[in-house]
Amino acid sequence: MESEVAISVRKLTKKFGSFTAVDGITFDVGRGEIFGFLGANGAGKTTAMRMLCGLSRPTSGDGTVAGCDVCRQPEEIKRRIGYMSQRFSLYEPLTVADNLSLFATIYGMSAKAIATRSVALAAELGMIGIMNKKVKDLPVGWRQKLAFAVATIHEPRVLFLDEPTGGVDPVTRRRFWELIYMSASRGMTVFVTTHYLDEAEYCNRVSIMVDGRIAALDTPAALKRTYGVDTMDKVFRIVAAAAQRE
To answer: What's the CA gap between 200 and 215, in Å, rounded?
Structure first.
């Protein structure tokens, strides 16, 4: 039986010389959960995400992502996860179809699987009419949707979204979250960072990092009750106010 825990870390730490960027964080994320990972600039969330994605080796502590050890199996983690950032890592001179095929090949998919999955994604995301268009000619909303498609074409167990809605309008942001809900409903775990605090309300649970540590972790509703406020923006301001790092 497949584990219901998609991400599990215990006392995960990353040091750069005498500086401790991530200081003994511990948490679990369930299968199909939308987990918000918040923190001000310099709080350590990017460093933590890099360790979870197999891009940086922890100094100490342990953990698993999609069933793989973060210390011993970083390459296997990369094959089992999807990743999307605000920069939309797409090849602009290529068509939509070519981008899908390229990223699927990188993930090791067969030609038959690529063709089948590309058709299914195009239909599901409403991209059939733009498959032969070059990315450079697409508006930002379509680029965002394509970036999501290439990050999930191999049907990863865990999807990491690093500020994926930065620079897009509110309507496009809301439509993107519909894609997140759709993926989570099928059992994909979504681990998302964002600077838009209203988006934290859409997550099943939210953690807030301060000075390399997780200072708060709970559902949005529970966090608002704990701090006696009515928005996640106010929760974040209260928790982040304790930061000592500049």
So the answer is: 16
**79 contacts: CB under 8 Å, gap ≥ 6:** 107, 108
Region label for 42, one of left (φ > 0), alpha (ψ between -120 and 50) or beta (otherwise):
left
Strands (DSSP E) along the chain, which ranges? 5-16, 19-30, 34-39, 60-65, 68-69, 81-85, 158-162, 189-193, 205-210, 213-218
| Integer angstrom CA distances of residue 134 from 88, 109, 137, 183 | 14, 23, 6, 26
H or E, element range at 99: helix 96-106
Q: Per the confidence metrics, is the pTM higher than 0.70? A: yes
Could you write out the DSSP letters of every residue in 10-66?
EEEEEEETTEEEEEEEEEEEETT-EEEEEE-TTSSHHHHHHHHTTSS--SEEEEEET
Distance of CA 200 to the CA centre of its chain: 13
CB contact at 8 A, 187 and 155? no
Distances (CA, A) of 2 to 5, 187, 226: 9, 11, 34
Span 161-193, pLDDT tens digits: 999 888 788 888 899 999 999 999 999 999 999
Tens-place pLDDT, residues 64-90: 999 999 999 999 999 999 999 877 789
Q: At which residue do the structure tokens 């519909």 appear?
A: 178
Which pair of tokens denotes residue 32?
């199909």
For residues 179 and 163, give the distance between their C-alpha atoms in angstroms, rounded to a whole number.
15
